[in-house]
Structure formats: C-alpha cells, structure tokens
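Quarterly update from the structural biology core.
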Amino acid sequence: MELRVKKIPKEEPELMEIRCHKITDDVQEIISFVKSRQGQLSAEKDGQKMEVALIDVFYAESVDNRLFIYTAKDSFEIRLKLYELEDMLKGRTFIRVQKGMLLNLMKVKSIRPALSGRYTALLKNDEEIVISRKYVPVLKKALKGGDD
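Predicted structure, tokenized:
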C-alpha cells in the first residue's frame, strides 16, 4: 500500500481519503484510529455499524478477546485490542483501572477505598467499577493532574 501526504494551504479544508480495493480489518483499524482522534469510535451493535462519541463512553472492557465500550445505557463492540484503544486515548481522560479495562474519569461520580488496597468508582449511571490495586497509583496521579 502506498502512502502519500500532501501539505495544503490553511484556507483549504483538511481531508483524509483512503483508497482501497476492499475494506479489510487493517483498513477498518486505520479508520477507527482516525475517528477516535476526532472524538468518535466506530462500533457495532446487533450487526449494525455506528459511530459512538468518546464523550459518551463510560468505560471499555476486554471480554473473551473482544473489546466492548459502554455508554450510560448501552454497549457496543469495537474492532480493536484494548492496548490499541489505550494508545489512541493517551492524553485524554481515559486510564487503565484493571488488566482488561479503561475508565473515562469524566464519567466518575465518586471514588472510595475498598478491600485489599482496591478502590471502587461509582459512575454517573450508578454502575460501580473496581479499580485494582495495581492501578491505584495511576488513578491517584491522574486525579492530581499528572501524566500516566
């Protein structure tokens, strides 16, 4: 696959075009990456493809080698690995809180200590998420405004 980058004047709108013979998993991954940088993720629910705004995502969880994102009332599957999504969301409000989970700190209502050094996050939709003790220092650093 050939890659071209062309610098344009500021007056022209920026455009990214992908020309392919077939939309493969690799092409879909590139599309998902670009959309996530624009604030949305390509997702699927009941066989239908749709766009989910990052601002609506409460958390992402890897289950049986599949990645799901959860909004206030719904869940969607995305075609990425958790580490790929984590890389895409670096510098945003998402942090890893379990081996298989990323949490959007903007959707947290409160956080309280739990047993064995773990914490529990109460989300704005009243769902509770356990933050494993391995990731508590990352959480504390993020809440203080540091980079993780």
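Residues 25-37 form the longest helix (13 residues).
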